[in-house]
Amino acid sequence: MKNSGLVIRRVRKIKRGGHHGGAWKIALADFALAMMAFFLVLWIINVASPEELAAIEGYFNDPKGMSTAGYSNKPIDLGGSPAKSVEQKLDLDLPEPGSTSELTDETEMRLGNDGEELERMNAMMEEELQNIEFFQSEDNNMRIEITPEGVRITLLDDPDKPMFESGSSQLVPDMETTLVSMASVFAKTDNPIVVTGHTDATAFQGSDFEDNWDLSSARANAAKVALLEGGLNPGRVAQVIGLADTVPYNRWDPASSENRRITLTLLTDEAYRRLLSQNRRRFGGEPVELAPGLTPEGVF
Q1: Is residue 120 part of a domain?
Q2: Ramachandran sector of residue 206 (left: φ over 0; alpha: ψ -120 to 50; beta: rest)
């Protein structure tokens, strides 16, 4: 080293790309999540029923209002009260609303002479009810249809001419007069009658009733009372029930005024026997034979 001169070493530093961290991973995850949510929405739109689509649309249009969803203003209800679903309906094997065709096959309409009897009774009802002043206008809301259970007369509500006072079971005078007049028409037959009350899917708001179940039941009973006042034999009444919004007449619009209705069904003999049998099985007490030596002390 003594014979060599001073050695100066120069190091040239080249700036290269530094460490970028994990920010790109977060961005990629966000993008993947957004794509998954997008395709999930497309799938829901494709498989959802019209009622579900109406409920979803109603929530996003008015999250805190009644809208067409009408059940909860929270996507996740932590208050302990489950939201209603328009899909959870009672399956009563009813025909499509407003599209019941007149059955001509006697086998479909039950055995025996019920087919001819239904045709005759349906024609008689149409002729007699047309004489009632309420039904003479062209925009009446009465439907007479032949169903597997019998002849069904449906009285649909009209926002301009309602059947009941708003949120009440009190019949308006015109509808009460109509039902009283219909009793004289029903007196020309001896078929048992089922009276059913229905509401739309709008949640009930008021103090007189707890919910739509109470309201529909009270309205069905009010219709029954009007028929009895018109002279209908009480023994002809086979059943009076309220179904709330579980069987909508207009299935595409659960909030439609058509769903607020009273139905009067004149049952065939076979349908009446089947109804009695079902009621006995569901609500009646079956006789039970106890063992001779069995005592209450031995059971309890």
Answers
A1: yes
A2: left
Does 207 lie in the same domain as 120? yes
E strand or H helix that includes residue 142: strand 142-147
Average pLDDT over residues 272-284: 85
Residue 154's DSSP bridge partners are 143, 263
Distance, CA of 126 to chain centre = 28
Distances (CA, A) of 144 to 7, 128, 150, 236, 266: 114, 12, 11, 19, 11
pLDDT digits (tens, 9 = 90+) for 88-109: 444 445 455 544 444 444 334 3
Q: Check whether residue 181 and residue 275 sit in a common domain.
A: yes
pLDDT above 50 for 111: no
Task: State the average pLDDT for the chain.
Answer: 75
How far out from the chain centre does Cα 300 lie? 44
Give me the residue label for tokens 């009897």. Answer: 117
State in Å, rounded, how far the first CA of the chain is from the last one.
114
- How many domains does the structure of the chain reveal? 2
Whether residues 151 and 38 share a domain: the answer is no
User: 38 and 139 share a domain?
Assistant: no
The residue range of the domain holding 50 is 28-61
Task: Tell me the CB-side half-sphere exposure of residue 120, using CA atoms within 13 A.
Answer: 9
Contact 91, 78 (CB under 8 A): no
The amino acid sitting at 129 is L
Residue 297 lies in a domain: no
- The 10s digit of each residue's pLDDT in 124-150 is 777 777 666 555 444 567 888 888 888
- One domain for residues 122 and 35: no
Sign of the dihedral defined by the CA atoms of residues 247, 249, 253, 255, in that order:
negative
